[in-house]
């Protein structure tokens, strides 16, 4: 029988570093990633937990230039639309934010939930069906950490029309888009979120996130 590993203080410190240095990346170098690394990241992502062991995640590598351009154009249109929700100084600041690295990231990875999967036979999701897409989010975060551990950055783009992206990628009918990820080597490394650095949103303290009963 394989012995479980021992996670010592050194490992815990490194894990803390990984969590602190994981960032949403929008500024990518254009150099290609090593052959097979996206597949390795997906292998690690699918070690994530899923409701009833449903494993509802489905990944699509998007390498076709026409499809990538179509997704990027959709982002530009959706972002212009989102800008209209803001006024004055906030609109100016919004317009100055960089909210995707779709134009430079060497890899695009779309992550879907398969709403029709029978894996897990429905365990755990009768009362909370939303746990199916939650499971896919767990895989996305696992991939994010696995990437950062290899000095690779991930940026999540949600400023997209999910139905349009599904059509561009010719995804099966029963799938819904959960995340569209840009993946590549980051141009710069930071411990603070870009939106904090550019004055859009401060870090909320633990006191506003943790309720005691
Ligand atoms: C569900 C989700 C959707 C997101 N969508 C976008 C997006 O469309 N564009 C963007 O620039 N960042 C997006 N992000 C990244 C967040 O803005 C980022 O995680 C947050 O500002 C905190 O920064 P950090 O990830 O570097 O800690 C998204 C993150 C999540 C979890």
Name its key features.
alpha+beta; 213 residues; four-stranded antiparallel sheet; single chain; 14% strand; binds flavin mononucleotide; NADH Oxidase
Secondary structure layout plus pairing:
Blueprint: H1 9-21, H2 37-45, E1 57-62, H3 65-83, H4 88-96, E2 107-114, H5 131-148, E3 153-157, H6 162-168, E4 175-184, H7 194-197
Antiparallel strand pairs: 1-2, 2-4, 3-4
Helix pairs in contact: 2-5
The structure holds flavin mononucleotide.
Description:
- The protein is of the alpha+beta class and 213 residues long.
- The chain has one domain (25-196): NADH Oxidase (3-Layer(aba) Sandwich), CATH 3.40.109.
- Helix content is 37%, strand content 14%.
- It has helices at residues 9-21, 37-45, 65-83, 88-96, 131-148, 162-168, 194-197, and strands at residues 57-62, 107-114, 153-157, 175-184.
- A 4-stranded antiparallel sheet has the order 1-2-4-3, sandwiched between helices.
- The longest helix has 19 residues, at 65-83.
- The termini are far apart.
- Bound molecules: flavin mononucleotide.
- The site of flavin mononucleotide has 11 residues, from strand 3.
